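To: structure desk
From: M.T.
Subject: fold request, one chain
Message: Could you run this one when you get a chance? Sequence is below, nothing fancy, just the single chain.
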Amino acid sequence: MKQTQRHEDKQKSLLRTAALTALTAAVCTALLPLCGCLNPVSLDNYGYVVTVGADIGQKEKYEVILELQRESSNASDENEGGAIVLSVEAENLFDAINKISYGVPYELSFTRTHVFVFGEELARKGMIPDFLGLSFDTLRIRTSAMVQVTHCSVREYLGGLSANNNANLSTLQDDMINDARKTGRVAVINAARCFEACSGGRFDPVLPMGFYDPKVVTDTKQKNTATEGENPLADAEKGARLGGMQGLTMCAALFDGWVMKGWLDADDTQFMNIGKGDFESGTIMYDYGEPDGAERAALIAKLEKKRISVNVDGAPSAKAEYEISLTVGQDKSGRIGREWRSGMQQKLERYFETELARVFKLCRDCGCDAMGFGRYASKKFGSVESWENLNWKSIYPELDAQFIVKLTLDDEYIAETRQ
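Reply: Done. Structure tokens follow.
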């Protein structure tokens, strides 16, 4: 009986297996005609928009410039891949997408968009929020996308980025963040922080600046002209930068709300970032000696700690304290190390404090709370209503800020003996 039962169970199992196999084969056969539906999602049918730019238009409201990263699913196709710049005048981004889509043989995808770029004229007219007033979710654009301003036209700047035929533009956002982290000579901010700054009133947005240098002899130009028997390096203007891209990103654009009011150069941006507390490390060039800074030292600075307090009882005031460590990168005379304990430390601390105060006043005169003192003032209020009643931006122009810097020399012994 037991053997008979086992035999019947085995037969049933075989029948179930056969039925499942037949069903699987039938489903696969039915799906074969639909395999062509997979073609539209292949890589070479998409144009990935990595950068969205906007400038003042001639006939319509905006000139919209899109920088695309094209990819090919066929590695042997030399005509695919690389950077492409498309532009059109339109009333908004969606209008531009409609117009551009007619003239390209692929679908525009914004899933990789990581930078918004705006022309300076547009930024000074306060037109950025109107352009950004789009549905990020509809286009699947992340609010972590960076926002920046160009000192040149957006077309020139984006053209300068793609002129090097850089086949991978997807690292631009990371490059910008790394530059800020390693040098402090550029401001960085994303779309989410811009909206937070302008809606909350606790600080103002500070955007990176884009520049265009047509004199740069790009890597691509060097390679292309070398095959033609030319020497672009020898023919380049004296002092011209060789290699890299013609589009440069540095400095800081100062905003009062959504309106651009001015900008800081790269050196001042370092001290703005220190005051803000966003500075991680960077090389500070320090001129000293007689007459009039005859000696120059390269000091690698690292922000260790910061303590900031703001008082809004009566006349607004702030006290900002920073602990910064220094490493002497270059000091021809060797005086910084030798004289560190005999007055050089105090002299450098006064220099840092003076520069912080000077840059703070530049920002304050533009109505820009670039160092974010409003964030610390808001902590004194127990409700949003009481904070809004203060109207921080109305009293910010009267803010008196005191800066105190404590420096330590990390390689004091080496600095003393290097020379």
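Reply (cont.): The chain has two domains: 41-264, 265-419. Let me know if you need anything else for the meeting.
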